Amino acid sequence: MDCATKKDFSGKSVRSIKKCGGFRMNDLEMYREQLALCDDKIIDALVERNAIIEKIMAYKETYGMPILQPAQEAKQERRLNEKLKDNKYQDEIHDVFKRILRNSKRIQARKLFSYNIVLIGFMGAGKSTISDYLSTMFDMKLVEMDQEIVEREEMSIPDIFATYGEEYFRNLETNLLKELQEGENCIISCGGGVAMREQNVVEMKKNGRVVLLTASPETIYERVKDSNDRPILNGNKNVPFITDMMEKRREKYEAAADVVIQTDNKSILEISEELISKLTELDEENV
Ligand SMILES: Nc1ncnc2c1ncn2[C@@H]1O[C@H](COP(=O)(O)OP(=O)(O)OP(=O)(O)O)[C@@H](O)[C@H]1O
Ligand SMILES: O=C(O)C1=C[C@@H](O)[C@@H](O)[C@H](O)C1
Ligand SMILES: [Mg+2]
């Protein structure tokens, strides 16, 4: 390819128009304009897509349909995989769609919850499990209080208890909870004992709705029996001990709760749906 140069009328060297790889001098400008038009189309499509997301939410609300529909999400993913399977840009396009999906989830989360969701309840009630699921489904930030404390202290909870005592651990919980009130649209999965301090409950309610998960002592026993991560239960993993401790804590849990969800024999999806509908109802009552 010969990109010959010649002088223009002012004497400046310019490339010959016809001989440069089949491109013309002004092609670059033209491509840039085409790119800008493409970007405009993408913006218009995204605005339209987001408006459709809002319509779907309104429709589900009107007809009392479940908000979370993981099967539909899986169907959409299959459709996309099929459509992109022979596309040479499939990795890049999949990456873009991942972000689009995450942002759709955020739009839903912001519309549904303008506050933090704070999960409380006895050990093994499912706080971590449900928080994790909700945070994935709505792309919401998740703070697992126990885990956060373990990371900051660089020690396991049983070691914190053994080295510094329970009071020290409880103070860490209170301080973390205070710190978390600065954010919003976050899921906070509390340690099992967090709601026992009145000061903690005041903090939770500043910027959050408190969801109490419950389960029978038998269910709790089944869920915790194979783990040694809960120092209070170590050596006490039996139904009578759990029953007794639960009864002692019950009043405080219930007093802290804005909504209560009983979790025995329910799937994670069922519990999460119940949580969303109870929180939504609560907001409607408060309007
Ligand atoms: N709805 C459920 N159905 C069946 N198993 C469940 C359910 N919810 C939680 N589990 C199981 O019970 C165990 C304890 O759950 P999880 O860790 O979520 O409880 P937790 O309330 O966070 O406990 P802790 O207060 O000790 O942190 C886990 O193994 C989890 O998989
Ligand atoms: O119920 C409790 O008092 C506790 C529950 C766990 O989540 C941990 O926060 C810790 O083991 C104490
Ligand atoms: Mg937990």
Automatic annotation (TrEMBL):
Q: Name one GO cellular component term.
A: cytosol
Q: In which pathway does it act?
A: Metabolic intermediate biosynthesis; chorismate biosynthesis; chorismate from D-erythrose 4-phosphate and phosphoenolpyruvate: step 5/7
Listed A to Z, the keywords are: Amino-acid biosynthesis, Aromatic amino acid biosynthesis, ATP-binding, Cytoplasm, Kinase, Magnesium, Metal-binding, Nucleotide-binding, Transferase
Transmembrane among keywords: no
Enumerate the spans annotated as Chorismate mutase domain.
22-112
Q: Which Gene3D superfamilies match?
A: Chorismate mutase, P-loop containing nucleotide triphosphate hydrolases
What EC number is given for this enzyme? 2.7.1.71
Give me the residues that bind substrate, please: D146, R170, G192, R249
Q: Which GO terms describe its molecular function?
A: ATP binding; chorismate mutase activity; magnesium ion binding; shikimate kinase activity
The residue ranges crossing the membrane are none
Name the needed cofactors: Mg(2+)
Among InterPro entries, the record links this protein to: Chorismate_II_sf (IPR036263), CM_dom_sf (IPR036979), CM_II_prokaryot (IPR002701), P-loop_NTPase (IPR027417), Shikimate/glucono_kinase (IPR031322), Shikimate_kinase/TSH1 (IPR000623)
So what does this thing catalyse? shikimate + ATP = 3-phosphoshikimate + ADP + H(+)
Q: Which PROSITE patterns match?
A: CHORISMATE_MUT_2
Q: Give yes or no: UniProt keyword Kinase.
A: yes
Q: How is the cofactor bound?
A: Binds 1 Mg(2+) ion per subunit.
**Positions of ATP binding:** G124, A125, G126, K127, S128, T129, R230
Task: Please name the PANTHER family in this protein's record.
Answer: SHIKIMATE KINASE, SHIKIMATE KINASE 1, CHLOROPLASTIC
Q: What does this protein do?
A: Catalyzes the specific phosphorylation of the 3-hydroxyl group of shikimic acid using ATP as a cosubstrate.
The name on file for this protein is Shikimate kinase
Native organism is [Ruminococcus] lactaris ATCC 29176
